[in-house]
Sequence to fold (121 residues):
Amino acid sequence: MEKNKVPTVAELKVYIEEKEAYYQDCIRNKETLVISGPKFPGETVWSANSTLPLMKAAEEVGTPKEEVWKLCSKIASTTHAPVTKKEYERMIPFAKEPPTVDAVLKFLETYIPVFENGHVS
Fold:
């Protein structure tokens, strides 16, 4: 699988399932879990919690995956939710694209952040 391209929903699912299987295997076999930096360009986007649900939503409403991938990349590059005007303004280009807005609205219809110990994980 070529990972420097925009993935399909199916490719993202396989990546996430393999990553989770590795984690579970380490836990089950009491092996050391090796945590390293990204193994390929864009891996942080592939593994961001919101990427798969956003890409699924885009697929459902017919938004080009390349368009939503740009938003996923931007989200993955941030360390926290926007809290200043300047941070909100960085998202204006995405808000000007009706297909991206449609995908985000579809995403928000069903997405609920996972809370663990009172924090979003």
In short: The chain has a mean pLDDT of 88. DSSP finds seven helices and two strands in the chain. Strands lie at 115-116, 119-120. The radius of gyration is 16 Å.
